[in-house]
Design a protein that fits this description.
It is a single chain. The protein is mainly α. The protein has one domain. The protein contains two helices and no strands.
């Protein structure tokens, strides 16, 4: 019986071209695969993340505007309350004054 040697294609390429050439080709394929993965999947996901970030920034701006409006309304209410207290204090002091008689 004749024994048949079965060698894998990688070993045949190593024997024919040498380790350095096969390693360079394998590295080239690896770089090509990583480049396609990054441009295909990761950039697509980054675009979605950018859209989400822009939407969140818009919501934060809206909340900031709402806070500014609420703060101005609160300041207005506080000023009105202070004015009412001043007026009530002034009205309490007025009865102590002697009213002037009108001149004819």
């Amino acid at each position: 019986m004749v024994e048949v040697e079965v060698t894998s294609p990688i070993i045949e390429m190593l024997n024919q071209y040498g380790f350095a050439t096969v390693a360079a080709i394998a590295m080239g394929y690896f770089i090509f695969f990583i480049y396609n993965y990054i441009t295909g999947n990761i950039i697509e996901k980054l675009d979605k993340a950018q859209i989400t970030t822009i939407a969140l920034i818009d919501r934060i701006r809206m909340l900031d505007n709402d806070l500014i409006r609420l703060r101005s309304k609160l300041n207005t209410v506080l000023e009105m309350r202070e004015n009412e207290q001043r007026q009530s204090n002034n009205q309490r002091r007025e009865p102590d004054r002697i009213p002037e008689e009108p001149e004819d």
